[in-house]
Amino acid sequence: MMKNEPKPLNTSLLSLVQFIGAILVIALHCRRLFDADxxxxxxxxxxxxxxxxxxxxxxxxxxxxxxxxLSKYYLIHYSKQYLIWSSIYLPFFxxxxxxxxxxxxxxxxxxxAGLTYTGTSYQLWYIPAFILGLVLVHFxxxxxxxxSTACLASTLYLLGSVETYSSYLAESVLSTAFxxxxxxxxxxxxxxxxxxxxxxxxxxxxxxxxxxxxQHKLKAKLLLCLTLLGLEGWLIYHNQGHDKNxxxxxxxxxxxxxxxxxxxxxxxxxxxxxxKGYATYYYFIxxxxxxxxxxxxxxxxxxxxxxxxxxxxxxxxxxxxxxWLLLDHTKRPCKT
Length: 336
Description:
The protein is mainly alpha-helical. It has 13 helices and no strands. It has helices spanning 11-28, 37-47, 51-66, 72-99, 107-118, 126-160, 173-185, 195-208, 218-237, 250-263, 274-285, 287-297, 304-331.
C-alpha cells in the first residue's frame, strides 16, 4: 500500500493570518481603543499579544524545515534587514532621547542599546530577540539535544514570566531580583527569556507536523489551548504585573494554531500570498504614522478612545498606501 503524501502547506491562509496579525500590532500601539477595561485587556493583552509568538513560530518553522543547520546567510539576511530599518528609525530615536533630556554623553550607549536590544523603535526589538534566540536554540540543540534544550527554554521562559506574574510574587526573592533586573534591562521580553521557547516550538513543529501529535484531534486540542489561554488571561487580568507578555498557555496554543493554519483546507485554493508583503511593511512602517498622529493630537479635545481610533484609521490608511507604493516599486523591472 502506498504511503499517503503530506498535504501541501496552506501558505495562503498563513499570509492572511500574518496580515491580520500586523493589524493587531497596530491596534496594540494605538494606546486605547475600548473604554471598557475587559474589552481593552482582551484586545491588547490577549489578541495582540498572540502575534509575536505566531511570527516567531512560523519563521522558525520554515527556517528549520528548509535549513535544519543554521545558515550564516539567514543571520546576515536578518541582520541586514534590521540595520536598514534601524537606520530609518534612528532620527526618531534621537528625537526621543532629546525629549527625555538624555545627556549627549549618553547617546552612544543609548544607540548601542537600541541597536542590540530595545530597537531604535519599539517594534524593532523583535529582530535582535529572534536572532539571539535562534542562535541559542541552534547551539543548544547541537550540544545537548531536544530534551535538554526544551528544559532550558522552558526554564528561561519561566524566569521571564516573573514580569507578568509579579503581582502574585510580591515581596518574593524572584520579584526582588526582577526589580533589580528591570532597572537595567527594562523587560524580560527579549531573546534570552522570551524568544527561545517559541523558536524551539517552531523547530519541533517543523519536525513533527505530519505526526499524530499535530494531526490527531487537532481542532479539539486547539480549542482546549484556547480555553486555557482564556483562563490564564482571566487570572492575569485580576492581578496584573509589570507587563503582560508571558502567557504559559501561549506556547501550546501557538503551536496548535500554526499547525491548524498550515494544514487546514480553508482558503487553500485562494491566492492570498500577496498579503505577506503588506503584513511585513505594516509591521515595520506603522510606528511612524502612529507617533506622528499622536503628536499632532496631543492638544486636541478628543477623548482618549477617539484619539486611539483616529490614530488607528490614519495608520492603516498610511501603511496601506506606503506598502502599495513600496511593493509596486520592487515589482518594477530595473532599467539598464
